[in-house]
């Protein structure tokens, strides 16, 4: 069993803030340096319908899947872990630590102005799902502000995503290209 800590960044923010794009770019930067990493957009670990009433965003299912998958990533020799997911509650951090016992987690919030988020959602979503995500984004913003789960936040407005990712790596103290 491995016992060394795994530097882990958990990128969070409201819907449309750019969590996945930023996490993807962090992975690109690690890849460019030939560093061993895993990238997980955790939303994919809980895509199943219907969701139970008590867990509408399927957090329980996601944590179960993450705990089941982590030993496989660890066995592959992963040295850095990049995660993306909305975190509405600081108590969820304990669940992440249970699922990934070796994780040394830093939570990074990505923020963007509402007009940028709305434009991003319009560009990527079609039909009624856009309306749902835009409402959810507006609903989440004050919840996330009150929860204050981030160790630090970065602006992900009009800057190139690479610049945002380099800022995060620098603030984490991780290698940068």
How would you explain this protein's 3D organization?
The chain contains six helices and five strands. It is α/β, with parallel strands linked by helices. Strands 2-3-1-4-5 form a five-stranded parallel β-sheet, with helices on both faces. Strand 2, helix 2 and strand 3 form a beta-alpha-beta unit. The longest helix is centred in the last third of the chain and has 20 residues.
Termini separation (Å)? 31 Å
The total beta strand count reads: 5
The neighbouring-strand order within the major sheet is 2-3-1-4-5
Strand content: 15-25%
- Identify low-pLDDT runs: none
What is the count of DSSP helices, taking H or I runs of 4+ residues? Answer: 6
Whole-number count of domains: 1
Name given to the CATH homologous superfamily: P-loop containing nucleotide triphosphate hydrolases
Helix percentage: 40-55%
Please write the CATH class name: Alpha Beta
Judged by helices, strands and strand pairing, the structural class is: alpha/beta
What is the residue-averaged pLDDT? 91
Q: What is the CATH fold-level name?
A: Rossmann fold
Overall spatial form: globular
Radius of gyration over alpha carbons? Answer: 16 Å
CATH architecture: 3-Layer(aba) Sandwich
What attributes characterize this protein structure?
about 180 residues, alpha/beta, Rossmann fold
Give me the secondary-structure topology.
Layout lengths: L5 E7 L6 H14 L4 E5 L17 H17 L4 E5 L7 H8 L3 E9 L2 H11 L3 H20 L4 E4 L5 H12 L5
Parallel strand pairs: 1-3, 1-4, 2-3, 4-5
Helix pairs in contact: 1-6, 2-3, 4-5
């Amino acid at each position: 069993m491995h016992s060394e800590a795994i530097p882990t960044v958990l990128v969070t923010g409201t819907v449309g803030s750019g969590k996945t794009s930023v996490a993807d770019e962090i992975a690109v930067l690690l890849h460019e340096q030939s560093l061993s990493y895993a990238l997980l957009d955790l939303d994919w670990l809980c895509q199943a319908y219907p969701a139970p009433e008590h867990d509408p965003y399927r957090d329980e299912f996601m944590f179960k899947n993450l705990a089941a998958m982590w030993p496989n990533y660890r066995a592959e020799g992963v040295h850095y872990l990049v995660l993306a997911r909305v975190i509405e509650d600081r108590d969820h951090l304990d669940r992440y630590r249970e699922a990934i016992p070796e994780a040394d987690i830093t939570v990074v919030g990505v923020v963007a102005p509402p007009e940028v988020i709305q434009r991003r959602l319009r560009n990527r979503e079609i039909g009624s799902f856009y309306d749902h995500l835009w409402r959810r984004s507006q609903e989440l913003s004050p919840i996330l502000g009150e929860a204050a789960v981030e160790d630090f936040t970065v602006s992900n407005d009009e800057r190139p995503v690479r610049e945002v990712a380099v800022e995060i790596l620098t603030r984490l103290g991780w290698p940068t290209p």
